[in-house]
Amino acid sequence: MSSQSWKRIPRTLQYMLRLYETASNSLSVYSNQDVRTFLQRNSQEYKFFQRYKLIRSNEFDNSAFPPIMAESIKPYFDDKLKFNSIDDIPTKELFNIPKNDMLDSDDSIHTMYSRTVTQSSDYFASLISLFSSTLSPRTEVPNITSLQNSFKWYTKLLNNTPIIFFLSQKHRLFSNTSLSKIDKAYLDLEYEITEIANDLGKNVDRSYHFTKLGLIDIFNLAVKHQDKFYKQNINDFDEILSTINWQDCEDDGLCESLMSHKLYEIIDSKFKPVSQETLDYYLNQNKFERLKRAFINKRAISALPYDLIYSTTYMLCIEDSVIDGDYSRILQTIKSSDFEIIGARLSLDNRVILENIPRTIEAAENTTGYDTLLQKAKTDRTKEPSIKSLFSFIGQTNLVTVELNNNESSVYFLPPKNPSS
């Protein structure tokens, strides 16, 4: 979580997020320094962190071990650890997997080992990313490794994944679950989807994948510039990335829909909407620092007269291995969840999708040409467990706007552009 992300958030929201951080910390056992240190140093992640430092950097930290143990093992680290010939092999080569093209099966965001113990929670960091990437979206991918890796992962996701559903969920910033830094609805749905995937057996590789869309601006850049990487060799990724003209792109229906989805709303204690000016006046009158100090007292949290309702976006990816399978269970799980379906993306590179979608797809510029597709989806009640049930499911939702992406490699199902009409 960088200072640059904070700067891209309006000051009033910064104040509310800082109050939230203070309030959530006051309710957490981590507010006690001794408890926080104990839990950190007894976690599996901290052990991996120390092991990494010992092996890769030969760094020995006395404070990471009990005094007697630290004194006993310190002599072993006075000199650099020797691994004979293996010491000359770069770590990455030990785990290197040949990549043929952009359609490889690698499905993870490439993260780096952390060299420090983070002090803010992942939950709070994701809030900062959410507000900064939506309220002040980047217009290009900066030369920052983590963001370039995210852009690469999103690009590969778009090239590899035949079906993506976009889901949204509303949260209240100062609710008990948010203050506890728990996204219960997400965890519950993730668990159910994982159970469905596990029941398919070990012979099916990557059937369903549910993840939070944390960097909407980077994802949108990947969508708009997908044509530059379309069916390209993955080894050329960095070279292509370095030559991109970020202004050389067209508007995209999916990106516009994701960005137009209402991010937050300010409410009072009766859950009625209030204006930004009202919240600004309250914060100015009560002095932010005084409020922040008061929030250390748990009783002051419930006295706050205003709150934020905000939305987070998620992606449900349906992989090629189950493209022609039975969708009934996964679709029923989505339907019965607390999430709203706000979009779907289907890849036209997939044979099964292409064979089942009406040929009126060629009339992409005229969205009325898709009326037959929507009507077909609403009336096709086939009991055959195939992709037809997915079209039927989409037809029953509010995703009535149908468009092609810029290079016509995928089709979008989106909410109406003018919901009020």
Write up this protein.
The chain has two domains: 3-31 and 120-414, no CATH class; 39-94, no CATH class. It contains 21 helices and seven strands. It has helices spanning 3-7, 11-26, 33-41, 44-57, 67-73, 91-94, 122-135, 145-160, 176-179, 184-199, 216-224, 226-229, 237-242, 253-260, 276-286, 288-294, 298-302, 328-335, 351-356, 371-379, 387-395, and strands at residues 163-172, 208-212, 264-268, 306-318, 340-347, 401-404, 410-414. A hairpin with a 5-residue loop joins strand 6 (401-404) and strand 7 (410-414). It is globular.
Give me the secondary-structure topology:
Elements: H1 3-7, H2 11-26, H3 33-41, H4 44-57, H5 67-73, H6 91-94, H7 122-135, H8 145-160, E1 163-172, H9 176-179, H10 184-199, E2 208-212, H11 216-224, H12 226-229, H13 237-242, H14 253-260, E3 264-268, H15 276-286, H16 288-294, H17 298-302, E4 306-318, H18 328-335, E5 340-347, H19 351-356, H20 371-379, H21 387-395, E6 401-404, E7 410-414
Antiparallel strand pairs: 1-4, 1-5, 2-4, 3-4, 5-7, 6-7
Summarize the structure.
This protein is 44% helix and 12% strand. The chain is an alpha+beta fold.
